[in-house]
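Support request from a user on the community tier.

User writes: "When I paste my structure tokens into the form, the page sometimes reloads and wipes my input. The last time it worked, I copied everything first. Here is what I submitted, just in case something in the input itself triggers the reload:"
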């Protein structure tokens, strides 16, 4: 699966999995189903209220007014839900800027406007081709808005990353881990898991600062905060694994 790699101001590298074409198509199908249901609801409501069609201008004016939210559905929901429609929420995918941050209204507007061309006018043909061929899985609307669609599903478990390089003779770089109890180690693991799942740099930075204070050590400048926390957990495991 292709990834979108971001290097934050805190020198923490975060990788996002790009949303698969299948998940994007399912999310679109869910959203399209919601739009169709809304149209049927509007028709049912007009019929229940016995609104006469004798005046076609008034009748069609009411229909256009009632169905207008469906026309702007994607723009409204992505703006309101920070890059997610209901379908995207269900599929756990999200629209973001290419730097991984939250997109703004004008970028959502670019995506929505160009969806008329790359989705609706070509029955999704241009969008699918562009997503498959582009480096960051972008349709035309994404390219114009400088956005991409990422998956929010974690691809790895924390256990896959913490101890994968912890061998029997693993060198301990921070002997100060002796100041950390087993309870501390479990808390560190839980906090790091939260930061890992959410891709939250703030939580990771706070964790590093706390470790530096408790262990009375400063993490090396050449080591990223992420690598520092992983090293501390590996060192603690190595130091106490036989005790």
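"...and here is what came back when it finally went through:"
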């Amino acid at each position: 699966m292709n990834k979108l790699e971001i290097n934050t101001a805190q020198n923490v590298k975060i990788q996002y999995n790009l949303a698969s074409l299948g998940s994007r198509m399912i999310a679109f199908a869910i959203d399209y189903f919601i739009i169709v249901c809304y149209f049927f609801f509007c028709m049912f409501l007009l019929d229940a209220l016995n609104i006469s069609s004798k005046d076609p201008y008034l009748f069609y004016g009411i229909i256009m007014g009632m169905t207008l939210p469906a026309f702007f559905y994607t723009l409204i929901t992505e703006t309101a839900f920070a890059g997610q429609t209901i379908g995207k929420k269900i599929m756990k995918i999200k629209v973001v800027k290419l730097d991984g941050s939250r997109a703004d209204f004008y970028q959502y507007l670019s995506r929505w406007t160009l969806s008329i061309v790359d989705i609706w006018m070509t029955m999704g043909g241009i969008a699918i081709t562009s997503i498959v061929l582009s480096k960051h899985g972008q349709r035309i609307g994404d390219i114009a808005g400088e956005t991409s669609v990422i998956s929010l599903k974690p691809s790895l478990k924390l256990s896959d990353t913490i101890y994968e390089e912890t061998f029997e003779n693993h060198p301990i770089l921070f002997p100060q881990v002796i100041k950390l109890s087993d309870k501390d180690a479990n808390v560190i693991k839980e906090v790091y898991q939260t930061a890992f799942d959410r891709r939250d740099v703030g939580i990771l930075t706070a964790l590093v600062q706390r470790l530096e204070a408790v262990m009375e050590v400063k993490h090396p400048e050449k080591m990223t905060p992420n690598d520092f926390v992983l090293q501390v957990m590996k060192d603690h495991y190595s130091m106490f694994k036989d005790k």
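Agent notes: The reload is a front-end session timeout and is unrelated to the input. The chain is about 60% helix and 10% strand. Residues 158-164 have pLDDT under 50 and may be disordered. Escalated to web team.
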